[in-house]
Amino acid sequence: MKVFMHWDMEGASGIFTREQTWYFEPGVRPHVVEEGRRLLMADVNEAVRAALDAGAEEVIVCDTHTGGGNIRVPEMLTDPRVTYHGRSRAPHGKGMRWMPGLDTADVLMLPGHHAKAGTPGAFLPHTWQLDWADFQINGESVGEMGIEACYAGYWDVPTVMMQGDEAACREAEAFFPGVVTAAVKRAEGYDLCSGLDAEAAHRLTAEKVAGAIAKARTTRPAPYKPALPMRVTIRMTSEAAAEKAAQIPGVARLDAHTVERLVERQCDVVQWIVKAGLE
User: Fold this and answer.
1) What percent of the chain has pLDDT over 70?
2) Which CATH superfamily is domain 2-129+141-224 in?
3) CA-to-CA distance for 143 and 211, rounded, in angstroms?
4) How far is CA 240 from CA 127, 151, 237, 244, in A?
5) Average pLDDT score over residue span 126-130
6) pLDDT level of residue 277 (50, 70, 90 thresholds)
7) Pairing state of beta strands 252-255 and 258-263?
């Protein structure tokens, strides 16, 4: 079995504060940023080790948080069965491929993930960009997990496991029937959470990774594959953002804050607005 792990950071083990993961904001302290990076890297290593121990023949690790650059590949677990993509896009043909190698995988895992924008009781909930208030596919509101699973659905790759806070796990369980989740933290407010210490969270995540692989071997879940043509609707937080998006060819502006586009492939779910897909 070939496993694709698409890592975000807000849901990773031991990361409890905004400063540890939203390091792009003004005033963050370098030692706190480094602490967050170290926690993420340790989490990735433990999850990868668990997948290999559970019999995965190959694991692809893709760092997606703010486009990547959060794991230092030379410091990661070294094994010929593991491929690391330190950026969420890699050269492919004449362009860049989002989630490189996903088209060759058997299953998708979404560790380190967070709940969608507007979710109550969640740690740093958002959907891709902070000026996206709601993202819908064929009238159904989805978060980043739904967007990524839709992209994977183009190649019939199912989502089998996710890790994050309790709210994110509830979102995944409602959206992906049978998905295995690892709830390693709970929100105490928008930008603060508490939960298992890093070592205990690693053990839980490893157990869930192994369980998801075992389950996928016997009961392969259906991929998330919305009907085509696919109607993608985004409600923006500002009129200016909607106005800018409406300048893209083929995009309709539904009201002051909302734009919509019909796409013909699941892999084009966000290609039309952020150029992430098959290029």
Assistant:
1) 99
2) Dipeptide transport protein (3.40.50.10780)
3) 24
4) 18, 27, 9, 6
5) 94
6) confident
7) antiparallel
